[in-house]
Write a structure and sequence with these properties.
The complex is a heterodimer of chains A (505) and B (335). Chain A has 505 residues and is of the alpha/beta class. Chain A has 19 helices and 22 strands. The relative contact order of chain B is 0.17. Chain B has one domain: ABC transporter involved in vitamin B12 uptake, BtuC (Orthogonal Bundle). Classes of the chains: A alpha/beta (505), B mainly alpha (335). At the A-B interface, helix 11, helix 12, helix 16 and helix 17 of A face helix 9 and helix 10 of B.
Chain lengths: 505, 335
């Protein structure tokens, strides 16, 4: 077996922060390499370099016997490298057949040869055993997320690839679809295609991978044949030896309130709750003085469960209660009125009011309270709000409360979003990935603020895909996988190793 | 660059170095608008001896009164990132309704109520299609513009309909020879300014325009805010209709056409962002004055009236280009 693709000494950083510290990787013809690691380990960045989406700062890429410092997306395609990214990148309103043929429609005499386009699309889908399930003439936006993912895979393989990269392809796939994908990968292996497979699910590794390579913080921590590794060895390589022993990352300062008395009436609860396509049969309680985290990867349903609890999306089954009162037809404004506020997943798209000032952003939900009986608000009231939270939220390096919020750092922006609900005075703070895209110092500030909030007898419900976050600030963690709670840890039982093990099996 | 100092360095990650985040700079825009206004005024004073006289300047303000009374609520609407292209047709239909009913029944009060109903109905329909059916507001109000422009012609049977009910309004002069229209314009502008800058509703408009999804997650009832904004535009159209009737003394076929263009130009020129979330009434006043001075000056310097449209269109494109360039040069957010 010889290497179809090899990377040597790949270095890459973003804005001066190194992400990859000299990675070597090779994958041979007819070999499946599983690339493993926690969020932020550098897996996606590494494969984007192979796909030509990112350029490395240093290092070489060897492919087809040629050596180069960087590939463009076009080079990557010319070398017959197929890349399936985590995000769906199809053209929603076009048909399945057109999507599979995108950019190279079959044509005759200047006209599109539709019968040939459809026939080739069906052939590509037949490789996945999906030709009968997916109609090639419907627009892809009518398919399920999993089916769209399969169409993207069909598009890649219809180009006769020699290297195929799949970045977490099964996050949106059903069990049946996953097995069809594995059948395909086995057939491609027989055709000498080299494959790199990124996943969070260790059970899949045993099924499909010949070799594993584990990254942690941009370095390779394990390279071995699948047969020679057990789960414990891989988990240790992913999370690091010291953390796998359950050492507390200890930053938020867990207090005696950890694992609070669950018999008191919950501030918020979900009973047998479900949202179609995301999660179901979920029972969840957030008690006063308790920080509950839903830990799960993309597609686990953790994010959707927290959004449903805050009224952002509607439950399709089950009951949402706030302080034992059933909430009917939940909307954000109804939940806010009952004391539940949501910090959104995407700061820019759903959180910040961009041209408005930092002070004004902090006061948004509190405007009605700040208004005088005459319904007028003074700007001074908003500056007062800012002054009140500047210290408790550790807002740093902010020139003025009047500065446009878009000009703040990610950490300060996140603190503003959090501060909104502190000023409003919610009882339950619902957060989605509370520290995504936030620097380390701000992350600690946020954990401190959350701990103070909880210790004041209120509750936190957060969705996270970051093990360290669950370890450092949760009193109770529900581990979610494919829409179900697969395990629960509380108090000092919460450690990286246990969480990772629960989430991947 | 300054290095951050932390209270407990041992407990913290290495301090990141970052320049203190800058204070906003809004001045250039006010300067640009003021300079443009002064430049136009200087140019026309040199080109025509009649331009820089008190009576002509009052004429300028009088001529922009109807546009301005509607542009003020439209500014609020556009700050919430919604458009209204139907104001000209709405005004035409309200004018025709008043003139026809007043002619046929002789009852000015009833006719005024009907005209008010028409103006508010257009706002209600716009809000319904934009918030409930979720049709893009440009398309919705473009459709309404065609519908009500047509209905105005239908109502008046394509004829001029005289109506003298408010004619003394236009003739009314306050001490100092100030036309009443100018006072009404300033009153509407002050009212809208206070609504926009100092009330919860005004804050809601900025929030909806800046980020509709975030507004919803912060408990703002986006649909209700939109409805109120369109109804306020309807009220503006009603007041504008009364003033228009007093100036034109009835309904004229084609009356009110082009009003939406003048309103849009004034609002955008005044710095209201097409993306929403940004804009002031004071800016719109500047924009109005520029539009007014431009058309007045072109008349005084004997430029053909056909060139008026060319000038106004050019001004609108210039304003939009200015808005766009401001957005492109803004520093991207640091991560």
């Amino acid at each position: 077996m010889c290497a179809q693709l090899a990377l040597r000494g790949i270095l890459k950083g973003f804005a001066g922060v190194p992400v990859l510290h000299g990675i070597d990787l090779q994958v041979g013809r007819g070999e499946v390499l599983a690339l493993l690691g926690e969020n932020g380990a550098g897996k996606s960045t590494l494969v984007k370099i192979i796909a030509g989406v990112e350029a490395p700062d240093a290092g070489v890429i060897e492919i087809d016997g040629t050596t180069t410092g960087a590939l463009t997306p076009q080079d990557s395609r010319d070398h017959r490298i197929g890349y399936i990214s985590q995000e769906i990148t199809d053209a929603g309103s076009l048909s399945v057949a057109e999507n599979i043929a995108l950019g190279r429609l079959a044509h005759r005499a200047g006209l599109v040869d539709w019968p040939a386009v459809r026939r080739r699309a069906r052939e590509a889908l037949a490789e996945l055993d999906m030709a009968e399930v997916i109609d090639v003439s419907v627009p892809v936006e009518q398919l399920s997320l999993g089916e769209r993912q399969l169409v993207e895979i069909a598009r890649a393989i219809s180009r006769e690839v020699t290297v195929l990269i799949l970045d977490e392809p099964t996050a949106a796939l059903s069990e049946y679809e996953t097995q069809r994908l594995f059948d395909l990968l086995r057939r491609l292996r027989a055709r000498d295609v080299a494959m790199i497979y990124i996943t969070h699910r260790l059970d899949e590794v045993a099924q499909i991978a010949d070799r594993v390579q584990v990254l942690r913080d941009g370095r390779t921590t394990l390279q071995a044949a699948t047969a020679s590794c057990d789960t414990a060895r891989i988990v240790t390589a992913m999370v690091g030896a010291e953390r796998s022993r359950g050492a507390d990352a200890g930053t938020g300062g867990r207090t005696a309130s950890r694992g609070a008395d669950n018999d008191s009436a919950p501030l918020l609860s979900l009973s047998q709750a479900g949202v179609a396509g995301a999660f179901d049969a979920l029972d969840l309680r957030v008690a006063a003085g308790e920080a509950v985290m839903l830990y799960g990867k993309l597609g686990s349903g953790a994010v959707e469960a927290v959004r449903a609890a805050a009224g952002d999306i509607s439950l399709t089954s089950g009951i949402l209660r706030v302080r034992d009162q059933v909430v009917q037809r939940a909307t954000p404004s109804r939940l806010i009125a009952r004391g539940v506020g949501l910090v959104a997943l995407d700061r820019k798209a759903e959180g910040l009011f961009s041209p408005l000032s930092a002070a004004r952003n902090l006061a948004v939900p509190s405007w009605r309270r700040l208004a005088h009986w005459s319904r007028l608000i003074r700007s001074g009231a908003e500056r007062g709000v800012y002054g009140r939270w500047k210290e408790p939220l550790f807002l740093k390096n902010v020139a003025s409360p009047e500065i446009e919020v878009a000009q703040l750092s990610g950490g300060n922006q996140q603190k503003i979003l959090l501060g909104r609900w502190l000023e409003y005075g919610v009882d339950v703070l619902a957060l989605l990935e509370p520290t995504r895209g936030v620097d380390v110092a701000s992350r600690r500030d946020i954990y401190t603020a959350l701990r103070g909030f909880v210790d004041g007898g209120r509750g936190v419900l957060a969705a996270t895909s970051d093990v360290d976050e669950a370890v450092s600030c949760a009193d109770r963690v529900l581990v979610m996988n494919r829409g179900r709670v697969v395990g629960e840890l509380r108090g000092d039982d919460i450690c990286a190793e246990a969480l990772t093990r629960l989430a991947v099996t | 660059m300054t290095t951050r100092l932390t209270a407990e360095p041992e407990n913290r990650a290495p301090a990141t170095t970052r320049a203190p985040q800058r204070a906003p700079r809004r001045l250039p825009q006010a300067w640009a608008l003021g300079s443009l206004l002064i430049a136009l005024s200087v140019f026309f004073s040199l080109a025509s001896p009649y331009f820089l006289t008190v009576s002509n300047l009052l004429n300028v303000v009088d001529s922009i009164a109807v546009t301005g009374i509607i542009a003020a609520p439209v500014t609020m609407l556009m700050i919430s990132s919604r458009f209204d292209l139907s104001v000209g047709s709405s005004l035409a239909f309200a004018t025709a309704t008043f003139a026809v009913i007043a002619r046929d029944t002789g009852q000015a009060a009833g006719a005024l109520a009907a005209a008010g109903g028409v103006a508010l109905l257009v706002g209600l329909l716009n809000a319904f299609f934009v918030t409930v059916i979720r049709v893009n507001s440009l398309v919705t109000t473009l459709g309404m513009m065609a519908i009500f422009g047509g209905l105005a012609q239908v109502a008046a049977d394509g004829q001029s309909v005289p109506a003298a009910a408010f004619s003394e309004l236009a003739a009314t002069r306050l001490p100092g020879d100030i036309p009443l229209s100018v006072v009404i314009l300033l009153g509407v502008m002050v009212l809208c300014h206070v609504l926009l800058s100092s009330t919860v509703f005004g804050r809601d408009l900025y929030a909806v325009g800046a980020n509709e999804a975030a507004a919803r997650l912060n408990g703002i009832r986006v649909g209700r805010v939109t409805l109120v904004a369109y109804l306020l535009v309807g009220l503006g159209v009603l007041v504008g209709t009364v003033l228009f009737l007093s100036q034109v003394r009835g309904y004229e076929p084609g009356g009110g056409s082009g009003l939406e263009l003048a309103v849009l130009t004034a609002v955008v020129l005044g710095g209201t962002s097409l993306q929403g979330g940004r804009g002031t009434i004071l800016g719109t006043l500047f924009g109005l004055l520029i539009v007014g001075v431009m058309s007045n000056g072109l008349v005084l310097t004997n430029v053909g009236s056909f060139w008026q449209g060319v000038a106004q269109g050019a001004l609108l494109i210039l304003a939009v280009a200015f808005d766009q360039s401001r957005r492109l040069t803004r520093r991207p957010s640091s991560r």
